[in-house]
Design brief:
This protein is mainly α. It is built from 8 helices and no strands. The chain starts with a helix and ends with a helix.
Length: 131
């Protein structure tokens, strides 16, 4: 079963979360949408609340945690140290994915990590993905 999931490019974790959700697990897609909404509404307070919710929930993906950090850093763009730390953490988690071009979470993490000040660092990765 695991081999089939891998061959189809389906995250094993997300598969089991979808079909065997735990009681303490919050809905990934709901939190994802709320994070996007907080970003587009420039609502840093809501983004921080969602980050706490993510951190206090078992079995939450690192991609979602990193995205929350990146969104908070982008909304607090005055603080370059926070932004740099968030991007570094996201890229660190990104490089944990061995087959990152076949992993949806890794690609989302890469796209969320792209900032105008790190384009030179991520350009080779984006070009690999395009090829």
């Amino acid at each position: 079963m695991i081999l089939i999931l891998q061959l189809r490019g389906i995250s094993i974790t997300q598969f089991f979360k979808k079909y065997f959700p735990s009681n303490d697990n919050i809905d990934y897609s709901q939190i994802s949408q709320e994070l996007n909404q907080a970003f587009y509404e420039n609502d840093v307070k809501k983004a921080k609340e969602l980050k706490l919710k993510i951190l206090n929930t078992k079995h939450m993906s690192t991609e979602l945690r990193d995205r929350a950090n990146l969104i908070i850093a982008a909304l607090n763009s005055k603080d370059d140290k926070t932004d740099t730390a968030a991007v570094k953490q996201a890229m660190h988690d990104f490089f944990k994915h061995q087959e990152w071009m076949n992993d949806e979470n890794a690609i989302v993490l890469l796209s969320n990590s792209i900032r105008k000040d790190n384009l030179n660092d991520v350009t080779p990765l984006v070009m690999m993905l395009i090829r």
